[in-house]
Each structure stands twice: as C-alpha cells, then as structure tokens.
C-alpha cells in the first residue's frame, strides 16, 4: 500500500514536471522582466509622465546614473547577454561565438525566453520582418546572433513573438528570465519616446501588473539601448516590482551600465560569470530584497 501511494505520487510529480518548469528561487527575485527602448536622451525620458509615475510608485526606483555601452544600437543589445560588444560596431548581422547568459541560466535550470515583437518564429535569421516592414529588426535581437542559440533548435525556439507572453501569462508559464524587445514603432526607433512610453509601454504594462503570473516576485527593469547619439550615453533606467524596497527619494545614483544588468542576473541565481565585462560590473541590487 505504501509503495503504491509513492508510485502514484511519483507519477503526479512527473506529470507536473513536464508542464511547468520548477521555479529556481533567486537571492533577490524569482523572475526578471527586461524591456528595452530606443535612442533617447536621459532628460527626454525623465520628462515623460509615465516614467515619473513608475519610478515614484511604492515599489519603483530610478537608476539615475545608468549608461549605455556604445553606438549604434546593436553593440548595446549584445552587451546585455554576452558581457562585451563582441567587437561589433555596426548594425549588420553578425554570428557570435562563445558562451553567453543563456549558457549560465540553463546550467542553473532558470527558464528563459526572448520575446521579440513581430518576430516570425521558426528561427528566422533575416535582417527585418515581416516582409516589407522593418518592425522586427535582427540588430535588436542579440539572441539570434549567438551561435550556440541560433544553431540549437531547442534554444532557438525560445525566441518568440511578443504575443506569446500573453499566452504564457494565461497558462501561468512565464519563464524566469524574460527579455522583451518591442518593434521599431513601439520602442520609439521609428516614432519617438513619447509614443513608446506614454502610449505603447503604458498600455502594454498596466494590465500585466494585475496578473500574479507576471508579477509574483518579479523585478521589472526597463531602459534604453543608447542615448541620442552623444559620447556621454546617459540613459534612463528604472526598476519596479515587489522585490524593490526603494529609499525615500526613489533615486539610486550609483553608476551602472548594461553590464550591471547581466551581473544582477548572475548574482541573483548565483550562475557564475562570462569572464568578460560582467566580472567588474556593479549589480543594481542594493535596494532589492526578496519578497
Ligand atoms: C537541472 O535539472 C536537471 C533535470 O531535472 C537536474 O538533473 C539537475 O540537477 C538540475 N541542475 C541544477 C543546478 O539544479
Ligand atoms: C510622437 O509620435 C506621435 C505618434 O507617432 C505623434 O503623434 C507626436 O506628434 C510625436 N511627438 C513628437 C514630439 O514628435
Ligand atoms: C538623483 O540623484 C542624483 C545624484 O544625487 C541627482 O543628481 C538627480 O537630480 C536625482 N534625480 C532625481 C529625479 O531625484
């Protein structure tokens, strides 16, 4: 009888395991949602009412001294998961060898997906999509440039269109590492920061903030890839979510950059590092506390 009960329990456990990935508890948060916008000076973003609203909420924090890595766009995106620009100084298609954040996450069983708005799926490697538009742009999708993702069908299948996120929320199957790239209208690239933030981001984010499948123990981090093409490259960045316990002025003026994002993820799940610029980066963890 005892043996029989254990066998049934094993069966139940096994069937749960195939449908829902186990959560790997993090030091500060159990999920991170990253959203990245395009080409805007710090001051322009700071003047937007929705940015002021988000950073001053009870679980909101401004990272007022955050810097992008380079120009044009692509090296910044590569930096966020590779720990260096891989020597890339343009927006052309590149194939990048060597390990990246996905190797570190998978070694710890931390689930991930890259949600690219208007991505056609099926491991599409072209420059733009859908045909006749430039809505999805490969230069903003660092995952497809990584050889060990592009050449691995199971990994490549985790680069998905952004609409998949609503499905994943409905199914309570949002991965623990969520990288969101809006299309070139919604990220401000072909429009402007006002449209990207006041219209697209607000309408996209607010309903999700009511969904526990999205928000539970989730750190939301949003920033810009680069500024308006100056040498300074100061960009706006903010944190939101129950893991954030902000100081009374909601302002962390520590110097951070895109490598800080990578380091924060590495520290949260104790993944080790990529032995690149992530090693010396400062994680933005000082106002984080696991809920
Ligand atoms: C990851 O999951 C696999 C399969 O369930 C397991 O064998 C392995 O020990 C896990 N690794 C870690 C670091 O938890
Ligand atoms: C920003 O873009 C929106 C829609 O694309 C447009 O209506 C608005 O006039 C633009 N604002 C500025 C300051 O250019
Ligand atoms: C944040 O702090 C920095 C450094 O003290 C300061 O220069 C900046 O004006 C502050 N920004 C806000 C919005 O409080």
Automatic annotation (TrEMBL):
The keyword Ion transport does not apply. Keywords: Hydrolase, Signal. Pfam families: Phosphoesterase. It comes from the Eukaryota. The keyword Cell cycle does not apply. InterPro entries: Alkaline_phosphatase_core_sf, Phosphoesterase. GO terms for molecular function: hydrolase activity, acting on ester bonds. One of its GO terms (biological process) is phospholipid catabolic process. Residues 1-22 form the signal peptide. PANTHER family: ACID PHOSPHATASE PHOA (AFU_ORTHOLOGUE AFUA_1G03570), NON-SPECIFIC PHOSPHOLIPASE C4-RELATED. This is 5951_t:CDS:1. It comes from Dentiscutata erythropus. The lineage of its organism: Eukaryota, Fungi, Fungi incertae sedis, Mucoromycota, Glomeromycotina.
